[in-house]
Amino acid sequence: MLMPKYPRCNVTEQQLTTATGNEIMHVRPEMRADALRTATATDLRWTIGSPAAATAAMPHPLFDAPMTPYEGDDQPEWLATPEPLTELVVDYERQGRLLWWRMAPTGRPSFTESLLADMHAFGDGLEAAFRRDGAGAVHPLRYLVLRSRLPGIFNLGGNLALFLDLIEAGDRARLTDYARACAGGQHRIAERFGLPVCTIALVQGDALGGGFEAALANDVIIAERSSKFGLPEVLFGLFPGMGAYSFLSRRLNATAAERIILSGRIYTAEELHDMDIVDVVAEDGEGVDAVYDFVARNDRVWGAKQALLKAKKIVQPVPRAELIDIVDLWVETAMALSDADLRRMRHLVKAQDRRRARRHAH
């Protein structure tokens, strides 16, 4: 088989299911058998992302380019980014009109600066593509699904090792830049990137701190049963500053939001489902199918659901200024942490590193 050249991804022969002429088809591993039997090349997906995770390139149906792998600068306009994405993998499925964006941090399973940069680049490409398309066209997207490529971990939140370095160095400016990048990303998700879509967080593991906050920014949270959620910041003198209070107070009320934040405890998916924070609890290993089931149900009332999402935005807006003001307060609090608080944060970093090492060992 003649292997195409990819400037932004390395593709092995095993990764390509079929290659006929210029048509490249790569089957998503978790695609259900019933869908696979009836799928065509255009129903499947193309992927961009890190070299280790990327597979084959297929242009978006908005554009008329032939289904050929891109070379050099001849890449699809859809989701084009100035630089290759290194910690984010994006998969589009025409059938179902789903766009999956999967966090793939190469270091700690947290919001590293490079992961944040990739997420903002993804948002820039998404918004730019549909500004060019215009509002009158039939929209090829209905669902944006945020998930993780790491087994057992959705995201462990802020980069605590970076926090320690910046706080001890007295680098308020860089800590502010990081925090505002987080808040800006949360606002973009909450605003659905300005698109007529439904955003979904698929949690298949631990969502702690900023990871929990990232899930909360979405319209819908679908979690596998063994997933754990928590906001541990209070344990080392901080509070979750990247949207937890804003999103929880709107989903519940201010009193309930404060109770969760100040508890510092870990919650199960079932507990949060009982509190109406998690929308769907799926059995372990069935999260992806739960997303498809939700999409099938939601599609039947798509017009009404979209209208309700717009109404929710009118009644319960989450202004960007609110999120920025809160993260600025978070920075002020972080810069004033005591030595004892910093020691507790350092212990948590070491615990996260040990856990990551154990996962790599398996």
Task: Summarize the SSE layout with pairings.
Layout: E1 18-20, E2 23-25, H1 33-38, E3 47-48, E4 88-93, E5 98-103, H2 113-133, E6 143-148, E7 152-155, H3 160-169, H4 172-190, E8 198-203, E9 205-208, H5 210-216, E10 220-224, E11 228-230, H6 244-251, H7 254-263, E12 266-268, H8 269-274, E13 280-282, H9 287-299, H10 302-315, H11 320-335, H12 339-361
Keywords:
12 helices; single chain; 362 residues; 7-stranded mixed β-sheet; 4-stranded mixed β-sheet
Broad structural category: alpha/beta
- Helical amount among residues, as a percent range? 40-55%
Overall geometry comes to globular
> Rg from C-alpha positions?
21 Å
N-to-C SSE string, H for helix and E for strand: EEHEEEHEEHHEEHEEHHEHEHHHH
Strand content: 5-15%
Poorly predicted tracts of residues: 1-76
Total DSSP helices: 12
> What's the average pLDDT?
79
Main β-sheet: number of strands, strand sense, barrel status?
7 strands, mixed
Secondary structure: number of strands = 13
- Give the spatial strand order of the biggest sheet: 3-4-5-6-8-10-13
Indicate the multimeric state: single chain
Give the termini distance in whole angstroms: 33 Å
Describe this structure in words.
This protein is of the alpha/beta class. The chain has helices at 33-38, 113-133, 160-169, 172-190, 210-216, 244-251, 254-263, 269-274, 287-299, 302-315, 320-335, 339-361, and strands at 18-20, 23-25, 47-48, 88-93, 98-103, 143-148, 152-155, 198-203, 205-208, 220-224, 228-230, 266-268, 280-282. Helix 2 packs across helix 4 and helix 4 (172-190) packs antiparallel against helix 11 (320-335). The longest helix is centred in the C-terminal third of the chain and has 23 residues, at 339-361. It is globular and about 55 Å long.
